[in-house]
Amino acid sequence: MTRAKQRLRTVSVIGAGQCGYETAELAESLGRLLAEAGFSIVCGGLSGVMEAACKGARSVGGLTIGILPGTERAEANAYVDIPVATGLGQMRNSLVVRNGLVSVAVEGGSGTLSEIGLAQKAGLPVVVLGRWADLPGVHPARDVEHAVALVKRLTSAMA
Question: Is 105 exposed, middle or buried (0-12, 13-18, 19+ CB in 10 A)?
């Protein structure tokens, strides 16, 4: 796969910066399965869901990008290959969702909800695992495997 093609197959993984063990396991599995399917991961680059998804992707050689709220690239979690320091705080959420063909929300709080809204406003599809699955216009996923199948289906028309 060419590097340009790889860039075109980037998925935004969104979720809370702090999460419990079960949510972290879900996010890590999601990152691994997305990378195995040939997708790169873009996220907010910090801890919680973001770190777990990056860890999963990296465990199988996937590419991870972290769009950071602060000005220091060193703030990125240990599994981010390409840290992007923005100095934008939470306003970087728009950059996170704009740099994926699809966003996948894993549980999360108000920050995740804002990213879902930003993605929808931009006309980008959103797959949801957990808390926000009942929102209008999202694609609810039963489990991680279903989420990846939805991502594949949604991106196949974009290729």
Answer: buried
Question: Residue 87 pLDDT more than 60?
Answer: yes
> What whole-number distance in Å separates Cα of residue 42 and Cα of residue 97?
8
For residue 67, give Cα distances in angstroms to 29, 35, 102, 133, 149.
21, 18, 16, 24, 25
Residues 114-148 pLDDT 10s: 999 999 999 999 999 999 999 999 999 999 999 99
Domain CATH number, residue 87: 3.40.50.450
| pLDDT of 19 strictly over 80 | yes
Q: What are all long-range contacts of 117-123, with beta carbons under 8 Å and residues at least 24 apart?
A: 118/93, 118/94, 119/12, 122/94, 122/97, 122/98
Expressed as residue numbers, the domain containing 135 is 3-156
| Number of domain units in the chain | 1
